[in-house]
Amino acid sequence: MKTVYIVDDNEVIRSLLHNALSRRGDCHLYSFDSGNAFVAALDGLEEGVLLLDIHMPGLSGLDVLSRLAATDRRIRTIVMTAKAEIALAVEAMKRGAGDFIEKPFAIEDLMGLVDRAFEALQDARDQAAPRETARMQIERLSAREREVLVGLVGGLSNKEIALDLDLSPRTVEIHRANVMSKLEADSLAAAIRVALTAESAHFA
Q: 2-129 belongs to which homologous superfamily?
């Protein structure tokens, strides 16, 4: 089941959205009457789509987006704004909102955005899986093996790496063989691909 969070201080709107989304039959629904209440629960929330009102007492929708961006929660946000609030909508997008919709809106239009948000979450999962696998492989390497891998990614030969690290070429060859084994790479190109997938700028 998918998860949708509704955050709006207007009880009528929360109820309307809850009823409309419940008819989909494929969503767990959680409603919050303020940005403060949502942020207080944030640490325990799972992946999902957030329908977020921009104007609320206490923490505004923009405030909530800033708090959300500071976490590792995988939550795709659709901001609900009043008409002619394009500047606010743009600011919301800058703070991490995936989409926005102007009130009043047709439920069918909102459902289309919800579907698109779930597709974006699936795409993010698909892209994250190989990165996570590559990072786990990189973590198997010792500090010295990572240094050798950095050299390989930089296009250095074994001799050049040996000079840089003040090692013998034979020692570099041993480290290189260990790198290939731990990365499950059958070629230098495959090892470099793993490093780049794992965002090699950050593993050294």
A: Response regulator (3.40.50.2300)
pLDDT score, position 85: 83
pLDDT at 202 exceeding the cut of 50: no
Residue 201: predicted pLDDT: 37
Rounded to whole angstroms, what are the CA distances from 80 to 27, 52, 88, 104, 169?
19, 6, 10, 9, 62
Mean pLDDT of 32-38: 98
- What's the pLDDT at 72? 87
Q: Which residue has the tokens 């991490």?
A: 96
Residue 196 clears pLDDT 50, i.e. is over it: yes
**Domain 140-202 = CATH 2.60.40.1120:** no
Tokens 């800033």 -> residue: 66
Residue 145: burial class (beta carbons within 10 Å; 0-12, 13-18, 19+): buried
3-state secondary structure of 10: coil
- 51 in Cβ contact with 8 (< 8 Å): yes
CB 156 within 8 Å of CB 172: no
DSSP 4: E
- Contact status, residue 189 vs residue 155, Cβ threshold 8 Å: no
pTM (predicted TM-score) = 0.69
**Amino acid at site 100:** F
Q: Where are the domains of the chain?
A: 2-129, 140-202
